[in-house]
Amino acid sequence: MIDMIDFEVYSLSDSIYNVANLYNLRYVCCMVRQARLDTPGVLHHVMARGIERRPIFIDDRDRDEFVRRLSDLALEGKLIVYAWSLMPNHFHLLVRTGKISLSRSMRSLLTGYAGYFNRRHRRHGHVFLSEA
Questions:
Q1: Mutual orientation of helices 102-120 and 60-75 as an angle, nearest 10°?
Q2: Domain topology for 8-120
Q3: N or C: which end of the chain has fewer CB within 10 A?
C-alpha cells in the first residue's frame, strides 16, 4: 500500500515554465512552485507514473478497474472527468474538482487502485512514484 501519494498537477501557472524553457531562461528553475489552486470547480491536468517506471496497468482488467474507480468518484460528485489516457506505466487525467479536494480524490483513487493491483499481482510495496 501507499503511505504518501504524490502526483503531478499542471495548471495555467505552468505556462511560465514552458515559456522559460522556450527561451532557455535558467533562473526560472529556482523559483518556488505556486500552491495548487484546489477549490471546487478548478480544472486540473493530473499525471502519475509507476515507481521506477514500472507498469501500473498489466492488462485490460487493470485498466477497467482503474476506470471503474475513477467513474465511482465522478458518480459521487467528487470529480468531473473530461478525459483520461492510460499508458502502461503512467496516466493522464483532465478533471474538474467537485465536492472534495483534488488531493483527497487522488488519494482515494490511487490508494484503492494500488491495493487492488498489489493483491491481484501478488506483490507488495509502492505502485506509484512519490516525489515528496
A1: 150
A2: Alpha-Beta Plaits (3.30.70)
A3: C
